[in-house]
């Protein structure tokens, strides 16, 4: 028995676990896997799961072409012992463990989003670098509505009234949903999810939660768990929590802003700062890489048709990749900080995106910038909303740019890029088949 296997068995014994949720994230960021009785779970072997889960669309369909073997083979799921924790809402003592996916000869499955992030982090480790990530996640609380054709509405809080309008940074408006957030904090603490700030965002019943900064893989794991936790708490309070990028007409979209810095492991210092405290060349090259490659990576940051409703002018979301100091109109913002905390905030991603792929893509673009010594343009002091669009305007354009970008294909693997493109093609075609209420209202009898 290995040390890892023994540690998992001890933890399961100490917590008197009766069953285990064995999880891995698919392309959309949803948790797939199996629930296994404790006496059937072998941490040394893990369990089996079809590799085809990574070729599945968000609607459960598959591309016509096979991107996994035609025999639909299994892969092995091996537990990451650092991710084991309780499922705080389960009635019986239940553990959840995030698993890594490998072939039966021990090779990482190249279609696993978690493995993709680990692949990018290995590039940093080879340079003696370690990325530091702090994600900010926005989401809406909405009324329960089973009919998909009815627009979403804000929920009622403790006063039995819905918010009258946008209440940015309102403490009283957050207090309306105190029962939700009290339980959310307790459940997140039980899972080791390191929450920082809670604020009311611009939208009606729109909230933002920040995670503490830390190592990239663990933060991506925590984002996946956080989204699942908030949905569960909301349902138990007779409302929904939605992480759609643009769930309601006339309301701001929901982002997953990403604060990034890099530690030089040789010195322990921030790679983005020189010894004299000024910005380093690595800092500028990282921004240059983001500017050069984020247009091709947009399909990871805006993965659905709905995502592009958020990326429009004057909606507090970026439309280009200008950068500036403490300038929230820019796609790339540099917050005010001391040299040790110098970082870059990538404001492109929607909260609907898969965190493993968002982190991997942003770090890959920055890595390419540092390796190729790409210089950014000058920082912007005015409004970036006045500047031209630089990003794809819809999903179809985004996946075309992604497939054509050889540097990203080399880092992510061409098989992964081709599979992701095929999945997004299917999702786009499915959306295109749906006739919207706008079309029926304005075209049915008038054209």
From TrEMBL:
Domain GS catalytic: from-to ranges: 113-447
Gene Ontology biological-process annotations: glutamine biosynthetic process; polyamine catabolic process
Needed co-factor(s): Mg(2+)
Ranges of residues in domain GS beta-grasp: 18-106
UniProt GO molecular function: ATP binding; glutamine synthetase activity
Keywords: ATP-binding, Ligase, Magnesium, Nucleotide-binding
UniProt xrefs under PANTHER family: GAMMA-GLUTAMYLPUTRESCINE SYNTHETASE, GS CATALYTIC DOMAIN-CONTAINING PROTEIN
Family: Belongs to the glutamine synthetase family.
Protein known as: Glutamine synthetase
Organism of this sequence: Rubrivivax albus
């Amino acid at each position: 028995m290995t040390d890892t296997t023994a540690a998992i068995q001890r933890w399961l014994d100490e917590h008197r676990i009766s069953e285990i949720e064995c999880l891995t994230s698919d392309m959309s960021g949803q948790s797939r896997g199996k629930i296994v009785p404790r006496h059937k779970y072998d941490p040394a072997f893990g369990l089996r799961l079809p590799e085809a889960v990574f070729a599945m669309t968000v609607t459960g369909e598959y591309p016509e072409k096979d991107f996994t073997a035609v025999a639909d083979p299994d892969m092995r799921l091996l537990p990451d012992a650092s991710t084991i924790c309780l499922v705080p809402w389960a009635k019986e003592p239940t553990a959840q463990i995030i698993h890594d996916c490998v072939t039966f000869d021990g090779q990482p499955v190249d279609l696993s989003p978690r493995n993709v992030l680990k692949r990018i982090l290995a590039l940093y480790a080879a340079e003696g670098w370690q990325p530091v990530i702090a994600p900010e996640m926005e989401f809406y609380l909405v009324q329960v509505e089973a009919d998909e054709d009815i627009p979403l509405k804000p929920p009622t809080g403790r006063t039995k009234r819905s918010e009258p309008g946008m209440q940015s940074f309102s403490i009283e408006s957050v207090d309306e949903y105190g029962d939700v957030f009290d339980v959310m904090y307790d459940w997140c603490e039980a899972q080791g999810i390191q929450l920082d700030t809670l604020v009311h965002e611009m939208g009606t019943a729109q909230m933002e939660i920040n995670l503490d900064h830390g190592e990239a893989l663990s933060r991506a794991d925590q984002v996946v768990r956080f989204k699942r936790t908030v949905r569960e708490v909301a349902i138990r309070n007779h409302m929904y929590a939605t992480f759609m990028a643009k769930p309601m007409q006339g309301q701001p979209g929901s982002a997953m802003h990403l604060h990034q810095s890099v530690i030089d492991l040789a010195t322990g210092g921030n790679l983005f700062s020189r010894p004299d405290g000024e910005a380093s060349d690595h800092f500028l090259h990282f921004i240059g890489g983001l500017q050069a490659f984020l247009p091709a990576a947009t399909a990871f940051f805006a993965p659905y048709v709905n995502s592009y409703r958020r990326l429009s002018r004057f909606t507090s979301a970026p439309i280009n990749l200008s950068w500036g100091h403490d300038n929230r109109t820019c796609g790339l913002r540099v917050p005010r900080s001391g040299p040790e905390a110098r970082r870059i905030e990538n404001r492109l991603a929607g909260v609907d995106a898969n965190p493993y792929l968002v982190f991997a893509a942003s770090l890959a673009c920055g890595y390419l910038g540092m390796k190729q010594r790409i210089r950014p343009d000058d920082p912007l002091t005015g409004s970036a909303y006045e500047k031209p669009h630089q990003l794809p305007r819809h999903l179809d354009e985004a996946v075309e740019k992604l497939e054509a970008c050889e540097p990203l294909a080399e880092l992510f693997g061409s098989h992964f890029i081709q599979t992701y493109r095929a999945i997004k093609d299917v999702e786009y075609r499915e959306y295109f088949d749906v006739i919207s209420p706008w079309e029926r209202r304005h075209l049915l009898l008038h054209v």
